[in-house]
Specification:
The chain has helices spanning about 15-20, 70-75, 85-95; strands at about 25, 30-35, 40-45, 50, 55-60, 75-80, 105-110, 115, 120-135, 135-150, 155, 160. With about 170 residues, the chain is mainly beta. A seven-stranded antiparallel sheet has the order 3-2-6-9-10-5-4. It has a three-stranded antiparallel sheet with strand order 1-11-12, with no helix packed on it.
Length: about 170
């Protein structure tokens, strides 16, 4: 295994992205309402658990994302964990210039953030912090309400959507 020195970006950024892509993740939709009460959302695979006591989750968003201002002012957000059947919805929420909420069955959750009916899990959160780190903003939310349902998750690995395989 080759060890590399400190990462400084540049030509190695594609190699770093490729190496990071070896870590399989679930696929989620982060949602909130903007200052005018309009729904905002995007596909996120940087979601993770942070703490059980208190119940905290984390996710990150590119500083250049057009959705960033809405999440920075929103007091609440929801993380909707996608199932295999949500592949096209994930692609829609990753695209620019589309009416994202025109697909899927949406309703306002306990905190007012958009919640997807049929999501494998939903975490409705109060935003506890939003801190810039490099080219992303790290959001930490306290889970106020959550739900979970059975089903096969939508996964992302090596820049492609994947299915969960047989148990080992």
């Amino acid at each position: 295994m080759a060890l590399r020195g400190p990462f400084e970006g540049g030509a190695d950024s594609a190699a770093l992205r490729s190496a990071l892509g070896r870590f399989a993740t679930g696929v989620t939709l982060a949602t909130c309402c903007d200052a005018n009460g309009e729904p905002v959302g995007l596909t996120v695979n940087s979601f993770g658990a942070l703490s059980l006591a208190p119940p905290l989750v984390q996710w990150s968003l590119r500083c250049e994302s057009p959705s960033l201002p809405a999440f920075e002012v929103a007091g609440h957000f929801a993380i909707n964990v996608l199932a295999e059947g949500h592949l096209e919805l994930s692609r829609r929420f990753a695209a620019q210039g589309v009416r994202r909420f025109d697909q899927g069955r949406w309703h306002a959750g306990h905190t007012g953030s958009p919640v997807l009916a049929g999501a494998l899990a939903v975490f409705e959160c109060a935003r506890r912090s939003a801190q810039r780190h490099g080219d992303h903003v790290l959001f930490i939310g306290e889970v106020l309400h959550h739900s979970a349902h059975a089903g096969a998750p939508l996964l992302f690995h090596t820049s492609r959507y994947r299915r969960l395989g047989d148990p080992l």
